Amino acid sequence: MSITSVTRSTGTVVLVLRGSVGTADVDSFRAALADALRAHRPPELEIDCSGVFELDPGVAGRIASTIWAAAPGATRVTVVRAPAALRQQLRLCGGAGLLA
C-alpha cells in the first residue's frame, strides 16, 4: 500500500491510499494519519480509497479504530471513494459514520 498526502485549497487534507491493504499496513496508515493531523490540524481530513484494489478481512475495523483513536474532535474524518468491499467491512464493524 502507498499513502500520499494532498492539501486542497480549502484546507482539507486528503490521504490517498493505493494498492493492497493488509494488516501489516495498518501501522503505516496510523503514522500517516497522525502526521497529517499533527502537521496540518485540518478542519476536515478525507481518506480517499479509490486506489484500493485488495483488502484483507478485518482491516476496515482496524482502520476505523485507528481513525477514532487518532482524530481529535475538531477534525472531521471521512472515508471517500471506498470500494464496495471496504464499505461493507466498515458498515459491519460500526464505521458507517465514517463513510461519505
From TrEMBL:
Pfam families: STAS_2 (PF13466)
Segments forming domain STAS: 2-100
PROSITE patterns: STAS
Official protein name in the record: STAS domain-containing protein
Organism: Micromonospora globbae
